[in-house]
Design a protein that fits this description.
Structural class: alpha+beta
Radius of gyration: 21 Å
CATH topology of the largest domain: Muramoyl-pentapeptide Carboxypeptidase, domain 2
Strand content: 5-15%
Number of strands: 5
Largest sheet: 5 strands, antiparallel
Low-confidence stretches: none
Bound molecules: zinc ion
Number of helices: 4
Shape: globular
Order of helices and strands: HHEHEEHEE
Mean pLDDT: 89
Distance between the termini: 75 Å
Length: 184
């Protein structure tokens, strides 16, 4: 191959490798060989939840709306593949630790993660979400809004017979799950 053709090819190939590496590092959403496996996206579809649990979640959402909240399901049922990939994050793959278990009630359709869907006070087009925004003037207000939201999630989840992750030793304020079945 003539030399003038090799240079653009080499530049193109290194740009591609660089882009894939950057995407993988930032989002974990580029397919990579195991154990750096692809992370499937969060599934928000409530119809994939266990029916009895879903009914309680609907009751919780209604009770939250009655208090002026705008709850949003950030994640519902989760595949075991996604759970395993999330568990690997911060351990055998880049990123921060986001879960403590490979055995989650999400994989049985018995857990949801709820976020605050009210508009962020200063970030146009964004919602309060987890209240974890930092760095802009309204973020402290958003954090206070989310704290208030999650306080009510905790109280009302208990009322409808669900378990809130906010009281755990590794608190997970967004997480609400079914009570474990009592076996006798
Ligand atoms: Zn969860």
């Amino acid at each position: 191959m003539p030399i003038p053709l090799l240079l653009p090819l080499a530049v193109g190939a290194s740009a591609l490798v660089g882009w894939v590496g950057w995407r993988w590092w930032r989002t974990g959403e580029v397919s990579m060989p195991a154990p750096l496996a692809f992370v499937p996206r969060a599934d928000k579809d409530p119809s994939k939840l266990e029916p009895a649990f879903r009914a309680k979640v609907e009751a919780l959402l209604g009770a939250l709306r009655a208090r002026g909240h705008r709850p949003v399901i950030a994640e519902a049922w989760r595949s075991q593949a996604r759970q395993d990939a999330l568990y690997a994050q911060g351990r055998t793959r880049p990123g921060v630790i986001v879960t403590w278990t490979t055995d989650s009630e999400h994989t049985r359709g018995r857990a949801v993660d709820l976020i605050d869907g009210r508009p962020h006070p200063t970030r146009s087009g964004e919602i309060v979400g987890w209240g974890s925004w930092t760095g802009s003037p309204g973020d402290d207000v958003a954090k206070a809004m989310a704290d208030d939201f999650y306080e009510d999630v905790g109280e009302l989840a208990e009322d409808v017979g669900l378990v809130w992750g906010g009281t755990w030793s590794n608190p997970d304020k967004a997480h609400v799950q079914a009570r474990s079945e009592v076996t006798t």
